[in-house]
Design a protein that fits this description.
There is one protein chain. The protein has 280 residues and is an alpha+beta fold. The protein has a single domain (2-154, 228-272), classed as Clavaminate synthase-like (Double-stranded beta-helix, 4-Layer Sandwich). It is built from ten helices and 14 strands. The chain has helices at residues 7-19, 24-27, 32-44, 46-60, 76-87, 154-158, 165-168, 170-173, 203-206, 212-227; strands spanning 2-4, 65-69, 88-90, 105-107, 134-141, 145-146, 149-153, 176-179, 188-191, 232-234, 241-245, 249-253, 256-257, 264-272. The strands form four sheets. Strands 1, 2, 3, 4, 5, 11 and 14 form a seven-stranded mixed β-sheet that branches. Strands 10-7-12 form a three-stranded antiparallel β-sheet. It has a two-stranded antiparallel ribbon with strand order 6-13. A hairpin with an 8-residue loop joins strand 8 and strand 9. Helix 1 packs across helix 3 and helix 3 (32-44) crosses helix 5 (76-87). It is globular, with a radius of gyration of 19 Å. The protein starts with a strand and ends in an 8-residue tail after the last strand. Bound molecules: fe (ii) ion. Residues 116, 122, 124, 251 line the site of fe (ii) ion. Fe (ii) ion is lined by residues 116, 122, 124, 251.
């Protein structure tokens, strides 16, 4: 699913962003995200509601991912934040632990240990007790070749011939101990990988955990994911934003050739606020 940003809308969002002198640090001030959303609603009116409603509607249906295309110059951060504050709240669970940690995080080409680097399907923040609901990526600078972000929904995976409910049942029947991200203080918590509300998956975090049957289920789930074709392969150009539902879909980095490490993405993680979406 793709949605274009009409030029007047993109210009108006960028104007509100500039007028409020917002940046990553500013968005972390108490009330700043609500203030930005209200200012956008006041200045843009129906155009902002219609745009964000369209994104929200696209996210609600499989594959729960939408690409927002913009051709305007240098306003990716403004558009990313304008979408994020309409969809929920930009999360920063590190705030108390790592002062200055961002809500708009610049993603640079990664080392070999990252799941994105080695092209493994995963959900974001799987090792946070409360992961983000949505993830959003804006492209600041593209790689010379490739660099798509791929998305695969749980709905698609369940319909694939490689999905074997008998083998995979431990993923929704058994709680397993997850190691908490060291940023969040370490320790462990217990959760099922698949519940009615959320998929939580990152294979290397689950290695050696749970019963033998659980380990076979993890391997089977990874094998089925690798066998399935991605729902979306989003090749972002500068200004484009990809949003996906981190509860209902996994993602991975597709093949990329970027020897100069040029690619720059801006990521935000969003917690939804049921009942607080309508701003007009
Ligand atoms: Fe990721």
């Amino acid at each position: 699913m793709e949605i274009n940003v009409p030029t007047p809308l993109g210009d108006a969002v960028a104007a509100v962003w500039r007028a409020r002198a917002l940046d990553d640090r500013g968005l972390q001030e108490p009330g700043a995200q609500d203030g930005f959303r209200r200012a956008l609603a006041a200045d843009l009116g129906r155009a902002y509601t219609d745009w964000t409603d369209a994104v929200r509607a696209a996210l609600a249906a499989p594959p729960h991912a939408v690409v927002v295309r913009d051709r305007g110059p240098g306003r990716a951060a403004a558009l990313l934040a304008a979408l994020a504050v309409a969809l929920g709240e930009m999360m920063n669970p590190y705030r108390d632990l790592v002062p200055g940690s961002p809500v708009l995080q610049e993603i640079v080409p990664k080392g070999p240990s990252s799941p994105d680097r080695v092209w493994l399907w995963h959900t974001d923040s799987a090792n946070w007790p409360e992961p983000n609901d949505l993830s959003a990526l804006a492209c600041l600078r593209a790689a010379p070749v490739g660099g798509a972000t791929q998305v695969l929904s749980l709905a698609t995976l369940r319909a694939h011939p490689a999905w074997r409910a008998d083998l995979l049942a431990p993923l929704w029947e058994a709680e397993v101990e997850w190691p908490v991200d060291s940023f969040l203080g370490g320790g462990t918590f217990r959760a099922r990988a698949i519940t009615a509300d959320r998929l939580r998956f990152r294979r290397e975090l689950l290695a050696g955990r749970g019963s033998g049957a659980f380990q076979r289920a993890v391997d089977g789930f990874a094998a089925a994911s690798d066998a399935a074709a991605p729902d979306v392969s989003a090749l972002l150009r500068p200004g484009d934003v990809l949003v996906f539902d981190n509860r209902r879909a996994m993602h991975r980095a597709g093949p990329v050739r970027d020897p100069q490490r040029r690619r720059r993405l801006l990521r935000t993680k969003i917690r939804q606020r049921p009942g607080r979406w309508r701003h007009l």
